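Model it.
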Amino acid sequence: MTARRVADRAALRLGLLAGLIVLWQVATTASPHVFFPPPSVILGRLWDGWLASPAAVSGHLLPSLARLLAGWLTAIAIGLAVGTGVGLSRRLAELVEPSAQFLRSIPPPALIPLFIVLLGIGDAMKIAMIAFGVVWPVFVNTIDGVRSVDPLQLDTARAYRIGRRDRLALIVLPSAAPRIFAGLRISLSVAVIVMVLSEMVATVNGVGYVLVNAQHAFRSVDVWATIVLLGVIGYSLNLGLGAIEARVLRWQGGAMRLGT
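Modeled.
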């Protein structure tokens, strides 16, 4: 894809977003509603109440981001390690699959009382809940990626007496990387959701705490500003992950060009 086409697509996306914001602004200005404030008011509150407020950033935003990243990275470590082992062993997969399918079907919010009983109401509970909620996309996609490795490559590596560790590092994980990153993208979006849910119960700070308090007080502008903030957080994290993915998987573009 040429630079001009990339720029055109970016301009189209931004233009569509700007058009929707303008329509929202016009509609809410012409017909004011207490629960649907204009975007200009929401963005002003987002700036004043969040981005330009050191107390909100240090007291709520940074703790939420720390919990999100801690839970997400914990889920990545567990999902990659266990998923790779299960993907490499059919016998282990048959043993683990029933338990995994049962656990992944449990909605994370349903486990909030259990996590509170086991871990209290501190950060450990929230991090554990985020990790539990997001580990499954990483786990499942890692298994699928490992199982999709070309058997011919593995047989060739064994014929040349390449060790198991080197096969894993040089063949299995690189081949499984596209599906693993697909799981990471899904898990990152889920992590934002579970982070908010975990902070709505038995907590004294965080973005979710601010959101639920604003809802209870019927502060609709604060609710919308916090929702927009969550969208910015999710979008920024996905942009960062996309940049890492493009760098890690840049060999794919070269391989595809060589194959054509």
